[in-house]
Amino acid sequence: MITMQPVLEVYATDGFALWPVAEVESFGYLALSGELTPLEVGTAVMHIAGCNDIDPEVDGRPPRPADPLRSFLHGLLTYDALFAAGGLKVTDSVTGVAFLPGCCNGLEDWREWYQVLEGDGLVGFGHDPDPCAERHGETVRLTVDAELSGSPVIDLPAADVRRLLAGVEHDLAGFLALAAVWAGQNLPRHAVPVIAALARALDLPLPADVSARNLEAHTDTHLT
Asked: Based on CB atoms within 10 Å of each CB, which residue in 94, 100, 161, 200 is the most buried?
């Protein structure tokens, strides 16, 4: 059986105390879905915010606030090109082969997988290792490391890739819905802009219950 999951890079939280998070001992991947616990959602939000915790410098963004919470969220809420380290993990339970995103790959680009089906048929997903997907007729070959001679591969029908990608979108939407509830409970003053930012970072539409009016009303909460 072949499965595909949207995964986020996670690492030890090292005393993070701005909101409750799950304990993570070392580097790994957290699969995002609508089945996460509140602590796991907190961990995911922490790591996505951390990926974008970049000083404004001279890029025109407002200065970083002094308040620790607003300071940590500042990049997430003001940075244009949001990044969420991770990607899509594909596992073949029969052979044991796991196709993982490479370094510098991000979940914000997960829709690039459709280029394998509808574009030029070849997409790379980072480096060290160098995973890539290439279409050959009605088959898609996933190569775990294109730089490695004899790299493990996963072959699957193109129709299955499309079905699996629909499942990925379902999982990401489920996570975003959970995050909306979580943010309302843990970041009430910043909930709407945080969810809007997470939606951008995951290339998803806003959840239906986050209205444009609420978004406009909360846009400036992270700057005051």
From this structure: 161
